[in-house]
Each structure stands twice: as C-alpha cells, then as structure tokens.
Amino acid sequence: MLNLTAHWSGYLSLIIFIAAYVMVIFEETTHMRKSKPVMLAGGLIWAMIGIVYMQAGQPDAAHEQAVHIIEEYGELFLFLLVAITYVNTLEERRVFDVLRARLVNLGLGYRQLFWITGALAFPLSAILDNLTTALIMGAVVMAVGSQSARFVALGCVNIVVAANAGGAFSPFGDITTLMVWQKGKLGFFEFFVLFLPSLVNWLVPALIMQFGVPSAKPDPRTDRVHLKPGARGVVVLFAATIVTAVCFKNFLHLPPALGMMLGLGYLQMWAFFLQRRGHKRNDHDMILDSFSQVQRVEWDTLLFFFGIIFAVGGLGVLGYLTLSSEFLYVGLGPTAANIVIGALSAIVDNIPLMFAVLTMDPQMSDGQWLLITLTCGVGGSLLSIGSAAGVALMGQARGIYTFMSHLRWSWAVGLGYVASILFHMWINARLF
C-alpha cells in the first residue's frame, strides 16, 4: 500500500471528509439528510485513490481494498435490513403501541415511571436498537409527563443513557457491537460480560437524577390498544431469526447476515399465511404486506453507513489510520486510547470511530476489545447529540429535552462513564 498522508490526494481527502462531517453535524440547520454529504465524500475520496494508484501502476491493490470494504458493508447492510424490517413489522402490528398504552395506564408516580422507563429501555435496546427503544420509551414519558416538563427532560436523559448502555453488552444492541462481532474480534457470548459494567453506566446517573424527578403523580389515563392478528407470531419469528444468525456464525462459520436473510424468509412466509387468511375472513387488520415493511426501512441511515464506511476506509488506504493507530495505541497505550475514543463518540458518531479502530486493527486483548466496545457504546450519552437516541428524543420532545437540559446532567453521566470503565477493568481483569 502507498503512504499518501503527505500527498495532495491525502490532504484533499481529509478536507473533503471534514467538510462532509461538518454538514452531518449541522443536519438540523441545513435540512440536508446526513447520507448525502458522506456518500459524496466517500465517492470522491475513492476516485482520488483510484487515480493515484493507476498512476503508480498498482490498480489491483486499490481494487482489492475496495472489494474488501464492499464485503464488510454488504454484510452489515443485509443484517440491518432484516433487523429494521422486523422492527417496522412489530410497529405495524401495534406491539409497541400496546406496550406504551399499558405503561401509561398503570397510574404510577413520576419517580416510579422514571425507573420503569429506564429499566425497560436498558434490556429493550439490547434486542432492538437504541434509536427505536428511545422513541418507544420517549413516547411513554411524553404521554404521562404532559403536565411536568421537568419529568420529561429528566426522563429523556435517563432513557438515552439506559438505551445506549443496554446496547453495549449485546452483539445486536448497537451498530458498533455488531461490527465488532462480524469482524470476529469477540465471540457472541463474550459481549455479555459487559452486562454489569453497562448496568453500572446507567444506574450511577439514574440514582443521582432521581432526586430531581418530581414526586407528584400524573393524572390517570385509560388508553385502549389491541395487538393486530399475527403480532405474537412476528415476535417469535424475530427471536428465531436472532437465534438463526447466531447459529450461522457460531456453528456453521458463515456470516450472520445469511442467517438474518433466512429469518426474513420466515417473516415473508408468515406474511403470506396472514394475507391468505385475512382475505378469506375479510379481516383487513390481519393482512400483512411484508414488502411494505422493507420499503419503510430508514434508507438515509443505511446510506449514511455506506458513505462513512467508505470514507473512513479510504482514509485508511491513504495511511491516516496507521498514523492515528501509532499515536493512540502505541503512544498513549490501549487503555487510554480506548477511553479517549469513547469520550470522542459524544461529539463524533461512534460508527466511524469504531470502524476506524477495526481498520487500524491494533493488537489488543479481549478485555481491551470489550473496553472499546463499552466506551464507544456509552460515550455518546455524555451529550444529547452524541447518539441517535439523544438526537431523536430532542426532536420528539422539542423545546423540553434540549442540548442544555442534557448538559446539566452530563457530570452525572460522566461519573457513570468512569464507573463503568473501572468496574469492567475490575470484574473482567482476567481478560486483559
């Protein structure tokens, strides 16, 4: 590989990447979807790589690197396509509406609801993702907290921390954990040793913030929502799909994305069965169009991943990730580097950070790979803009849960961040 860090193509690629990322940060202001600038940046960076390698007479070297990144993105894309389709289907079958209605109708006080929404967000995020979990629990907080802006603000901070922490101990809980698992750095069951450190990450700030939650009780509500026919079957098939993906990876040594695609086949057949049955009974609620759920996939997010992975991968081919690896993992050491990178994920999206680490591929123990998985997963909780969960809730609770309302409690979240790292290094010391 050529070292192009001091070449015109390297400098120009850095400028393009930084400019694209600035546009991503200001998405709310410019109203330009985040996938557009990063896709343009990724394409331009690789065009320059292609030109330089052609001039050097090594086009095959650049081609080999590009194909490798396409393979990595392809596995991630197929995995997420199926997972998001299942989540969309669960939403269409009213599974989340029923959960929300039941929580709202419990008639509990604000402090009880503060703990229940956080306690549900933590495990739900390990199965779904932090964004979907935050939106579901955020809707509950908004529904019961219409009379208390303080409860809504604190409830949203609590949900963001719980959702990000819950995703850190599961291979399915966050894009970064999925990337680490698919790369083969950690086995499926190894992630679960992060359960207690992740729990500490949520509990420490939650215990502090609970004293700011009003002790009053909201007015009771009697919302009634029923599951659509076939909803329980979708839940069972989603669980079966996850098991299938794990079996493909652990026992057949095949990409888990293939197991997920088999799981999509489960859903397609279940939809066909419901559709036939619904037409016979003239029951429109029973009819499930599985392809419409595929169409509802958040393509902006999937294309954003494409642009980021190719742009960061391009910077790696240019030689910048090797420089960064030497500075961080050789100069600072893996522990300090992993903690710093996790803290950076409060400002920079954790996906390019984790992809950069995986591309650098520093020689680390399982304990260190678990540490970067933990810090990249929970570091985004330090600021409201640090994770998809926080950004989504700022939109959902606009004017109540804001950047500043989260920042007031960032010190408590920071204590949880430090506590979870120390707890991981103590309880999992044998892995370092």
Task: Kindly list the characteristics that best describe this protein.
mainly alpha, 432 residues
Instruction: State the low-pLDDT regions, or none.
Output: none
Please tell me what the overall shape is: globular
First and last CA, distance: 32 Å
- Helix percentage: over 70%
Alpha-beta content class: mainly alpha
Tell me the major beta sheet: none
- Using the CA coordinates, give the radius of gyration: 22 Å
Summarize the structure.
With 432 residues, this protein is mainly alpha-helical.
Structure description:
The protein is mainly α. The protein is built from 21 helices and no strands. It has one domain. The model has no long low-confidence stretch (mean pLDDT 87).
Any chance you could write out the topology, listing elements then pairs?
Elements: H1 8-25, H2 27-30, H3 35-55, H4 59-92, H5 95-104, H6 110-127, H7 130-144, H8 149-167, H9 175-182, H10 195-209, H11 231-250, H12 256-281, H13 290-295, H14 299-318, H15 320-332, H16 334-344, H17 350-360, H18 366-378, H19 388-396, H20 403-407, H21 410-427
Helix pairs in contact: 1-3, 1-14, 3-4, 3-14, 4-11, 4-12, 4-14, 5-7, 6-7, 6-8, 7-8, 7-19, 8-10, 9-17, 10-21, 11-12, 14-17, 15-16, 15-17, 16-18, 17-18, 18-21
